[in-house]
Amino acid sequence: xxxxxxxxxxxxxxxxxxxxxxxxxxxxxxxxxxxxxxxxxxxxxxxxxxxxxxxxxxxxxxxxxxxxxxxxxxxxxxxxxxxxxxxxx
Length: 89
Known about the structure:
Helix content is 55%, strand content 0%. The termini are far apart. It has helices at residues 15-28, 33-40, 45-51, 53-72.
């Protein structure tokens, strides 16, 4: 039972939730916005970017970290985050 001050949430995975999960996974894996757009069937790239902008921002941050790591000669871990500081934390 949900307390009256909290909205109820449908946790059953439906088509809409699976679609968002799929798109989020693709973006996290570094798939380009235009490719995600095509795979989701969005007519306009703006729809894709506006819906998932927060994930694309994370993707840009990870790309910048990889470039920085290359510039300072640290190893790049495919699909993972590089530690451009040279430390473990």
